[in-house]
Structure prediction request, 279 residues.
Amino acid sequence: MRRLITFTFFLAITFHIQAQYLEVGINGGAMSYIGDLQPNTPDTRSFGLSGGAYARYNFSPLFAAKFSGTYGQFVGADKYAYGSRKSRNLESVTTIYEAALTGEMNLTKFDIVDGRITAPYIFAGVAGFYFNPQVKVQGVLTDLQPLGTEGQLLNGGKGYSRFALSIPAGAGFKIAINRRVNVGFEFGFRYAFTDYLDDVSGNYPNIEELAKQSTVAAAMSYRMPEYFNQRLENPQGTPRGDKYKNDLYYQAGFTLSVNLATKEKMEFNKEYRAFMKTQ
Prediction:
């Protein structure tokens, strides 16, 4: 009975944090988005490469925190659409630079020293990112934000910010190859607090007024004449995008990490093992 009570005591305290260790890693995969130029199922041609690095701090077999930096790129283009949206003829190539802090919860205990070497997990957190939508003008990639394609710069106005916040959330699966090295796969959405990832959001501006300020801005704002190869009426005030929905982007890829800790530092059950050695 004494041993049972003692054993129960030591088993209970294993739920407390007994070790904490750091791992660092890299990831690589693909990135795409959902927005005004791709409102539904993504076209495979919209995906671009993504990659980054991260540091994960393991608090316990169930919980960890991760700081990550990510680079990615994706394409939005009406030419990939079906039906009437194709004639809008807008497109952009967007580059993302993101810094994120997320919390992770393993759905099963991940404790390498104890032989628990696989775990599915979910995560959520907060991120800040810089984005830059571009388009080819006479073969040269040109930033769209400084053009004010929806009339943001008319009458002394300001363009939208290329810095924004997002809420990342997703799931992954990791496997410890050995005590030092882990591999995994992760998929995550980022709900962005901006509707301009593809430079499209609201209504068409007065194209004639915009052309007085910049012929390039006017041409990149209203590209239906280019599609139909004829002059069309000024579309001022008609919808160019859906201003009531923000964009989101997402990434999927593989991870590779290294644990920066000795076996002792990775031991979450020190009291239990010390107890067992005395029996």
Residues 3-17 have pLDDT under 50 and may be disordered. The longest helix spans residues 2-13.
